[in-house]
């Protein structure tokens, strides 16, 4: 029997939080181990309960979801949980900051329940960045933040030296928000081969997941944000 995915739900609106808990508790492979109504409580419960996945709202009182994500899943945190950021796209102007803080992906609050459930399973497996089409739009929206700075060149050189030509091609496709299947079709290779390449890229560059790979690719100017 597959081990249940332990979930922590962090949302300040009680009705929305209850909705998440109700939907997710019906899944045979998921267990809601805690609920938090603000960012500080999210951090406390996250550290104490050690969930596999944290469903994190961005706009919360006391401590916002970005800082809560950083404290739970930032680069310095050992064995961090996966964080799924949920956001109202036209309101939350700092979702990209949450991804940089350590979130493993994001979905919109009006996402259908089935997509939320599948997204949590995807993040729990650590296999893919969520909502590829939204990823492309989001990255374009924050193009100004993603412009490479003067210190990016050594990092870019390191990436180019470390990865093979094919791995660089896969990284570029990742940064465009493509799924494994889409990358496979684009490069005319098998989806399992793409999965292998992605794993190698993350290992070689010491990256936690695909989100970090996307951020790196834009930060060093390997690809340019859509305007």
Automatic annotation (TrEMBL):
Pfam families recorded: GerE, Response_reg
GO biological process, one term: regulation of DNA-templated transcription
Keywords: DNA-binding, Phosphoprotein, Transcription, Transcription regulation
Limits of the HTH luxR-type domain: 156-221
GO molecular function: DNA binding
InterPro entries per UniProt: CheY-like_superfamily, NreC/VraR/RcsB-like_REC, Sig_transdc_resp-reg_C-effctor, Sig_transdc_resp-reg_receiver, Tscrpt_reg_LuxR_C, WalR-like
SUPFAM superfamilies listed in its UniProt record: C-terminal effector domain of the bipartite response regulators, CheY-like
Location of 4-aspartylphosphate modifications: 57
Presence of keyword Transport: no
Protein name per its UniProtKB record: Two component transcriptional regulator, LuxR family
UniProt organism field: Actinoalloteichus hymeniacidonis
């Amino acid at each position: 029997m597959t081990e249940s995915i332990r979930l922590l739900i962090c949302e300040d609106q009680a009705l929305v939080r209850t909705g998440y808990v109700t939907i997710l508790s019906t899944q045979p492979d998921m267990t809601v181990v805690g609920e938090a109504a603000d960012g500080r409580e999210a951090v406390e419960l996250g550290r104490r309960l050690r969930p596999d996945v944290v469903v994190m709202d961005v706009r919360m009182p006391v401590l916002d979801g970005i800082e809560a994500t950083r404290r739970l899943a930032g680069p310095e945190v050992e064995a961090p949980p996966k964080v799924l950021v949920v956001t109202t796209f036209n309101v939350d102007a700092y979702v990209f900051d949450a991804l940089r803080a350590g979130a493993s992906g994001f979905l919109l609050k009006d996402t259908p329940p089935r997509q939320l459930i599948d997204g949590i399973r995807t993040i729990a497996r650590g296999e893919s960045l969520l909502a590829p089409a939204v990823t492309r739009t989001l990255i374009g929206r924050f193009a100004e933040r993603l412009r490479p700075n003067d210190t990016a060149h050594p990092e870019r050189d390191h990436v180019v030296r470390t990865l093979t030509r094919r791995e660089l091609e896969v990284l570029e496709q990742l940064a465009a928000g493509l799924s494994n299947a889409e990358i496979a079709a684009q490069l005319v290779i098998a989806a399992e081969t793409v999965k292998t390449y992605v794993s190698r890229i993350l290992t070689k560059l010491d990256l936690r997941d695909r989100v970090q790979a996307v951020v790196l690719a834009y930060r060093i100017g390997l690809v340019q944000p859509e305007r």
